[in-house]
Amino acid sequence: MSKMEHSEERKNIRNSSIQIKLPLFIALALVAGVLIGANTFSPSTNNPQDTAKSYLKFRDILSYIDRDYVDTVDVEALTDHAITEMLEKLDPHTSYIPAKDMAMARSYLEGDFEGIGVEFNIFKDTIYVITPLSGGPSEAAGLLSGDKIIKVDGETVAGTGITNEGVFKRLRGKKGSKVNISVMRGSNSKLLPFTIQRDKIPTVSVDVSYMVGDKTGYIKVSRFSANTFEEFKQALIGLKKKGMNQLILDLRGNPGGYMDHATRMADEFLAGNKLLVYTDGKGTRYDSKSFARTKGDFENGALIILLDEGSASASEIVAGAIQDNDRGLIVGRRSFGKGLVQMPIPLNDGSELRLTISRYYTPSGRSIQKSYKNGTEEYAKDMLNRLESGEYFHPDSSLFVDSLKYKTEKGRIVYGGGGIMPDVFVPRDTTEFSEYLSQLYNKNVMREYALAYYKNNQKQLEKMSFAQFKKSFDVTDKMLKDMVALAGKSDVAYNAEQFNRSKNLIRNNLKAFIARSVYGNAGFFPVLHESDEEFQAALKQFGRAQKLAKGGV
């Protein structure tokens, strides 16, 4: 949700090359676009003489170093470093996984392990939380995107040369075991302590589905994992049974996953054999086209897809297919722009090369992949650059040029430039934000207060149906006063002007967190959406979406 995710933006983060290339995840391998299966080795036929000459040169240099260099050298580590630096010259998603990391990499694909449930990366020798996984223990504890993990069980892990393997050894563990971590949040130099109880990481990817009124359905998909399509299909059928005839599909913050689940999802909305996505590589070897093939459960009816800058890869395949076939309306902000296809190639020592072999294109011919011509480090700072350029608050006019102009099936103008450009732009809403609110988020005050309130009023709350709660439960001034007192104990100094500016949003968030304790996500999201500008904007666009559904433009 844009309001809750806006608390602090990361600043001046520079990725080291190997960590940009190897974002191994505690909870899930996001393998969007990876082709399962790989080729056995065969020499290049494009430029065999130069390839052979370069290979011999590298072999000779490595042999001289191993035999004659003044100090003892770890030749394998040197080779791994050289490979990583070489791949740096290609694209941001071609990567090399050393043999020692392969067992961990496979475990993410299988999803059968236990830990704290965060996606992380290492920047400038510091562990950054990319996102706490939905429904996992880190999300429940209150970790936020952008948090820097400084200590684990009292051990300083920042500035110590921590590796991916080192992170896993410290944060993974048996279900029920606990780990104490200290994080730095935003510009606050004081460390925030968290005790997280490890658990089996949930593989559920449909966070919630519910009816908004009598005819509008809502489904939030957080990632495209092994069971996503089945979960989505079940949610879709369930909403139809409740009378849904128009749908909001929320893909905000969805980083992608398996391509086939994305195309099957898009197929549920498109009749006939419409083109969904195609790939184009060197020559024709890795070219492919995916078409709608089955009769879907929602081929008619107004459709709106919510996107933002965190929507990537498989999310962009779905949105591109829907937009280019004039099937539905895209609402939100420009998506991430990840449209390179990797093929995993096992190497003879147990390591793996994930080589980019083609690009994704939407049916109109737009490349999903954003530019990486300025290098990997600049590519990694794209989200920060969008913030600084103001793109989160108004569309980037530099992308609306003739060379990036394409047409949908019925002639609507859409634009390329990387990612999916929305039909209806919704800026991030900052009108109710304040530094005081940011500190409440940073110190986890609202979650803590909501949990305590639930425990003290559990019997009374659990007697209420969610419909009763949503209609009649109010966050009173007394509750706000108690929360402010709790904030003071957490070193959040009261600021009357900022509190009043954020007061309505604080009320909404407190009610949503209390609802989550009582009803789970089925209570949390409907309450939160009452103050979600993007969600509210989508509800107002069903007239346009209905026109598209009926064949208009």
Number of helices: 21
Strand percentage: 15-25%
Q: pLDDT average, as an integer?
A: 86
Looking at the structure, what is the overall shape? globular
Question: End-to-end span in angstroms?
Answer: 29 Å
The level of helicity is 25-40%
DSSP E strands, number: 21
Structural class: alpha+beta
Low-confidence segments, given as residue ranges, are 1-38
The biggest sheet amounts to:
6 strands, antiparallel
Rg, please?
24 Å
Please describe what this structure looks like.
- With 553 residues, this protein is of the alpha+beta class.
- It has 21 helices and 21 strands.
- A hairpin with a 6-residue loop joins strand 13 (275-281) and strand 14 (288-291).
- The longest helix is centred in the last third of the chain and has 24 residues, at 496-519.
- It is globular and about 75 Å long.
- InterPro entries: ClpP/crotonase-like_dom_sf, PDZ, PDZ_sf, Peptidase_S41A, Tail-specific_protease.
